[in-house]
Sequence to fold (539 residues):
Amino acid sequence: MAICTGCSLLCEDIEAAEKDGALTHVKNLCRKGHGHFQAAFTERTVPMIDGEQVDLDRAITKAAEILKSAKSPLLYGWSNSTLEAQAVGIELAEKLGATIDDTSSSCQGILMERILSGKLPTCTLDDVRNYADTSIFWGSDPSSSHPRHLSRFSYYPRGEKRQKSYEEERTCIAVDVRKSATANLCPNYYFQVAPSGDAQFMEAILAVLEGKIPRVGDKKKMIGLGSILKKTEWGVIFAGLGMVYSLQEKMDLFEKLLARLNEITTFKVVPMVGHYNMRGFNELLLEKTGFINRVSFKDGKPAHGPEHSVVAAAKTCDAALIIGSDPFSALPFGTARALAKVPLIAIDPRRSLTTDGAKVVIPSALSGLEAGGTGVRMDGVKIKFEPIMKSDLPTDEQILTRIMEAI
Amino acid sequence: MATEVEVTVVTMRDIFQDEAGRKSRFSDEYRDQSAQIILDKQDLAKLGAKDGQKLRVLVKNDVGSVVVAAKTSEDNPHPGLAFMYNSPWSNQLVSDAVSESSIPGFKSIKAIVSAAEEKVTQISEIQARIKG
Ligand code: SF4
Fold:
């Protein structure tokens, strides 16, 4: 069995083989996972300097030169690399006195911080399968983003205490600004919130739990929601980007809601992490520095703050190494523009807007397909994997180690 | 002057668009799946779209602009609210001026929409803008 690195579910039951440059005998991969692995056969990168193809050694030497001569380099990406590669990356940042940040910085970071520090109660997805009778998809849409989430864990499967599963025992609730694919599965329990209205909706739930009249939403429906929550034996909230972006500085309210729910029954939170090893990076950096992201080693000691976030650091860095990420596609225009102005080193298995704009491109093996290692699932479970096929391409870990040796 | 509609754009994900982007950021498939805006029925009608008619629109704000295909929402009425898939097209409109949490407003983009004659913005144009 192989592991899919297409999203942070890290599905462990994948069967696949490679024949003549294509995947064959594929079983259990969802559409997203299939696209993810298929990418290895299209749009591959080759080692390049200034748009000219070079050999790998030259690209690595050039990358080391750029980083060595930079005064404030930024190392960004990380959520599509193995724990082993991330560990070398953090070491490299320390050695260079660089700023290091990952995709969580503009994504799930503020939620992950609270989960890893124990401020929000959490659980594994296996607990969800075994015990959950209420699953709330809040600002998350696994049918689109984590296609096997509902079938492996959160809605359809039978579990230790949930033998009657979705037919009788599990209720799924969607809270979203739009009727997403997931909300369509639970039309009776779809609660529409206004954009940036999640905090208000939380206040409304807190009100109905106190027996008060809620200020937003259909009153009858809100009171109905209150009684489902009270009757829940074991509930879980799958918090997605919709909620995180909407709450931002008001994250404390989410803690308050969870605390209140846990006075009544059991309620947990699972962060709907996108990339397969974002959580791994956050855990590793936390262990090494006390912070989950946005760290600068400029003065030797790790410093943390918004000024070290990718959005801010893109404007102040004088060189950047981007690994397994495509900020030119995924970050605001101004951030992409700022990064495009400095010498960029892109380590990636496949061509992207960022590799196209990089001074140095270093091709790497695709984790899961061509490289083995360890990833951390969205719920914190560590998953080890072996590659599906042989490859001559170096892994992220090997590339970073060689860059470090050359500095 | 062409009619303009003010909207807040919320970005979202889609499995087909995601799959296309994983396979290639440079394919026509990825462009067609990404360069879209989903508008409320009434808002789309204000821009001059007759029932079922395809319309291209210019979406612009202080950060940038893109020409994308407009589609009607299947959801309940939501005038002033629009949806785009998270992509290089939507990110042309996202400001890097951030709030205290330093998270860009990917899901609350203020923009103005109007009917457009031009072709849909190509990925090569986006690359050229980023390069500057
Ligand atoms: S759900 Fe995620 S990990 Fe599982 S097969 Fe699909 S993309 Fe891969």
Chain A touches chain B through 61 residues (CB under 8 Å).
